[in-house]
Amino acid sequence: MNLSHIFSRAGVGIEAPQVTIETHISNGLPALSIVGLPEAAVRESKDRVRSALINSNFEFPTRRITINLAPADLPKDGCRFDLPIALGILAASGQLPVQHLANYEFIGELALSGELRPIHGILPAALAAKRSQRILVLPEQNAPEASLVDAEQLIAQQLLDVVAHLVGQKRLDLNHPIQSEQSTEKTPDLIDVKGQYAAKRALEIAAAGKHNLLFIGPPGTGKTMLASRLSGLMPELSDEEAVDCAAIASVSGRRRLTKQWKVRPFRVPHHTASAVALIGGGSNPRPGEVSLAHNGVLFLDELPEFDRKVLEVLREPLESGSVTISRAARQAEYPARFQLIAAMNPCPCGHFGNARGQCRCSPDQIRRYLLKLSGPFLDRIDLHIDVPLMTRKEFTAPVDSASESTAEVRSRVEQAHAVQYQRQYKLNGDLQASELDQQLAIEPAAREFVLQVMEKLGLSARAYHRILRVSRTIADLEGCEQVDRQHVSEAISYRKFERMMQQI
């Protein structure tokens, strides 16, 4: 038989569409051509495959070989097709029986010696193979990552090992699924933060309702220290969420393969990061920081130091929870349901509003500094919290009984999450405006109070809905079914930025 079909997987975003490697050997001058929109790395595979076959003591056919990567209109890149191309040539030339090949999917790069090398993006391919009910054969170095998927997989070190398995001489080893373990990694504890009880309360509310948070305060007040505690207050990732995060890391070339793979991502890009670094991009689109922070936290320190155009690109993913990267040849969509936490100084010198009167900035300098952040961007941040300088007494005092550990606060956060999922199947921060009206259960007097404050501070409709979401979360933390004026008043008090703009 001069024709063979081998199944493999391409990589498009975090999806892995099926690719069928069709190999045909015919009479004619010796040549090997690959068609089906192959990019440079795929076209170069013919040289790697030829050397790998010869060095593995197989015969390389001295005839005309045509390899089609179907579907032909799907761009193919990377070295992932080396192994299936080699097996296709062996099957089409009669050196490998074609029986049962339809039950397998093959993926991996070949060295010139026939050794299998790892590839990026193995996890989406493993998930897709599981859905197709086929057995995935993959390089041994990809095994820990692929083991996150509970499916039958075979691992190999050499091309010879794969062929020996297919002809029934020696079976390949099974890849055993990873066992979920409780995280034992020591995370920063909230009890280490002295004072700043209002900021700690805001952290708890943000974690309980998945609200975006902005810390505003002078240098050295603990804003970064507080922000680093947020992910520890949130419950561990579910199996499905953890696999999503691992798939994004896999596509980007990073690996989340420690025993603590259910820990939520915490990404901290530098303020010189570009829009592409945050959103993702490139000729072959790769995920950016917002996608790497999916189901976790994105922390932007020194917020006004980011380029304004860079911050503006965050507006759409903050609303939609996804990013679509379009290029001339392809398009990729990545999930980006992250929780934003940011920190900033109130003015260029950092001491505006300081009771000690240390600010050296003029009102115009302060206004220009604050206006680096646009109104539409700030509207998407639910909580604006003042983090003042600590007094000498607070700074030197030992940890008191009023301080709570991360574990104590996380227990209340988990209870609030359970209430929200039972009521509306999602967290309050993810509620749409129409859903919010159905789930709010607010007292008429409390709603009227919010409308009055909205007119006085000149808030937008988006800010109005975000105040209501925060109010709902505060009520959930207190175990109240109805939102009253006290809950609304506390939510309004967390609008520091609007009050700062009124002062100048």
From TrEMBL:
Q: Which SMART domains match?
A: AAA (SM00382)
Which GO MF term does the entry hold, naming one? Answer: DNA binding
Q: Which Pfam families match?
A: ChlI, Mg_chelatase, Mg_chelatase_C
Family annotation (InterPro entries):
AAA+_ATPase (IPR003593), CHLI-like (IPR045006), MCM_dom (IPR001208), Mg_chelat-rel (IPR004482), Mg_chelat-rel_C (IPR025158), Mg_chelatse_chII-like_cat_dom (IPR000523), P-loop_NTPase (IPR027417), Ribosomal_Su5_D2-typ_SF (IPR020568)
Which organism is this entry from?
Pleionea litopenaei
Similarity comment text for this entry: Belongs to the Mg-chelatase subunits D/I family. ComM subfamily.
Residue span(s) of domain MCM C-terminal AAA(+) ATPase: 288-346
Q: What PANTHER family does the annotation carry?
A: COMPETENCE PROTEIN COMM, MAGNESIUM-CHELATASE SUBUNIT CHLI
Q: What is this protein called?
A: YifB family Mg chelatase-like AAA ATPase
Alphabetically ordered keywords of this record: ATP-binding, Nucleotide-binding
Keyword ATP-binding belongs to the record? yes
Q: Does the keyword Nucleotide-binding apply?
A: yes
